[in-house]
Amino acid sequence: xxxxxxxxxxxxxxxxYSEYLLRRDHSPFTEILMKTTSGAFVLLSLVSCSLFxxxxxxxxxxxxxxxxxxxTIGVSSRHLFGYQTVQLSLAGKxxxxxxxxxxxxxxxxxxxxxxxxxxxxxxxxxxxIANVADLSVGRQAVYAGAGNGTLDxxxxxxxxxxxxxxMVGYYGLLPAPRQKAxxxxxxxxxxxxxAQLTVSPVEFAQFSMSYxxxxxxxETYVGLRRDSLFNPYPVExxxxxxxxxxxxxxxxxxxxxxxxxxxxxxxxxxxxKMSRVQLFAxxxxxxxxxxxxxxxLGLTAEYVQREPRLQFNSIFTAFAYxxxxxxxVGGEYxxxxxWQVFAKYGSVSYGDEDSKRVTVGVNGSxxxxxxxxxxxxxxxxxxxxxxxxxxxxxxxxxxTLMASYAQYRLSxxxxxxxxxxxxxxxxVFRPIPVLSLDxxxxxxxxxxxxxxxxxxxxxxxxxxxxxxxx
Length: 470
Hints:
mainly beta
């Protein structure tokens, strides 16, 4: 493979990618970008009485990834993925608008297509309503215990007793497939709703209970099937509706940095059984309550037991499966404020079989390295990895180097070990705080990819301005 192809072809394509999206007639990306921008000011003008000083921020990120994939033996295909991201926000004292749009295209792949545009965020948020409530409406992400994901709808939050008691409720449609900038077609069978109650009785502890219900029904599509003579014919496929419904409770603790802990329990309401149990603890036995000095030793322990997360009425619920149980214990020791060593031991149980792993390593301000050893049901693996990054020219330029090597065997019956090697060399250039230019070259060699070269480039620009429109 000729590595110069990546640099020559990508160089021209990256520069033309933004022009292609923004100048192309009737480009969906252009239409969505225009709607996002105009929608921001229209929505904010309706609530201008709450905006006396506005902060306008626009982040533009252009990136590209060139690589070659080995499709079959002796047959490969070259790809040039291009991404254009626009994040726009206009925030006042209590009212703010947020949007996040991304365009994507495979310029040189075997199946070229029109730009794919994803709308991740597009919502208006009104905070501190009567000093007790927040309300946001539009396409947005939900993080509320058992409920997480994206919806087209509303999220309401009520905070009482100096935020020691917080109640969150949400309802909305699931986003259209591939995050299209439109409402989903089957609104009756594609929605998510739920609530969360969070209580903080003391400063170092927090408890919450949450509930989530989600209905999912994929779109009808046409697939090809073959008759008894192997002649293809189209068939309309109508997937059945599935559902998820969970109850969850969790507790977190952080007592002066000396001990931190987390516990969680999830219950699948529709399948009527436990879904997940998780326990985590970190202890620093030499923590000083009076003097916040260096705590050299830290001990950690974690236990997770979970069932496969299967949607109710899904065909996968008919298959037999095992409960996964996992635990890990570890320790970390700070030799100096800059250097730290760590070690971890863990085991994963798949029912009658298990897999064990050991990891040791060291972290510094500019370098980190680790060794890993896995044995058991999941296969055998011995690996080493290291990374290095050092800033120069007043931290405006940073060179990075990453390397990893592994020998693995997928099962005990495999006859020999397989090697895998990867190296990455990159540069990060930040001439001014609002502009960042990144590039990284990757070289991979393993059983499937022989001397594979990849290149990733990224340019990010942040525009921020204080306005006084209203």
